[in-house]
Specification:
single chain; Rossmann fold; 7 helices; globular; binds adenosine-5'-triphosphate; ATP-binding; ABC transporter ATP-binding protein; ATP binding; Metal_Ion_Import_ABC
Length: about 270
Amino acid sequence: MSPIVTTAPVVSLSGARLAYGERVLWDGLDLDVAPGEFVAVLGPNGSGKTSLMRVLLGLRALSAGRVSVAGAAPGRANRRIGYIPQQRALEPTLALRGRDLVGLGWDGHRWGLGLRGVRERGRRVAEAVAAVGAEGFADRPVGLLSGGEQQRLRVAQALVGDPAVLLCDEPLLSLDLAHQRAVSDLIDARRRSAGTAVLFVTHEINPVLHLVDRVLYLVDGRFRIGPPAEVMTSRTLTELYRTDVEVVRVRDQIHVVGAHGEVCEDSHLAEH
Ligand SMILES: Nc1ncnc2c1ncn2[C@@H]1O[C@H](COP(=O)(O)OP(=O)(O)OP(=O)(O)O)[C@@H](O)[C@H]1O
């Protein structure tokens, strides 16, 4: 069920346009994300999903329009943002323990130095490590951990500072099914208990479909925003992709069938 919008949006885009030279990724994008809302960002490769995350992080300026995060310009809001980047393996030689990686998400947040601050930091980091079930490997060098173990620590790092908004760029990649479930449950619990808004870039909507309030679906400069039942339909995706697309619902899963009859593994068209 969608949360009722009674408070100011955590993320607000209005008339937003992003272009690289002649190439317009999106234009006229209006999106207000409420506290606790879960927005899935879908679309084929190169449609501008990661670029949207970069705008919200203040790493990229809009070509036109306005954006605010937690009531501030993106760069100023960084302490209110938790970010789980697209998975990249960490250097095997990186001399950083898992626990230290999580601690980086807390540093600069509050309390400063002093015994009280150090204790508070240690407590928060331990809580975040436990929340992702990483106690067993949090004291090992991160570079030697598996991709899934590193990813769980990144989730802990993103959550340790109690962010107002969580930006996730394909956070479930490289996780096995049990840990996909554990990580999505954790994100869900956080938005329910703390009102953290979630923007979740994914190629595969099914693992999070039960959490999704709205979908932002980007295709080749066009986009649609709405609940999954409105956006994930044959009609809407055919309009967006400008080619025949059929959306097939199997039990509680959504599959997208492309113009040539192929059923894509994930919920967007791999080729169109
Ligand atoms: N700094 C840049 N200058 C020019 N073009 C760029 C720049 N950054 C990204 N692009 C282009 O913008 C497009 C969108 O990239 P983006 O990474 O946002 O896509 P995406 O939807 O996240 O794709 P994927 O699903 O493959 O991760 C791509 O074609 C990319 O090559």
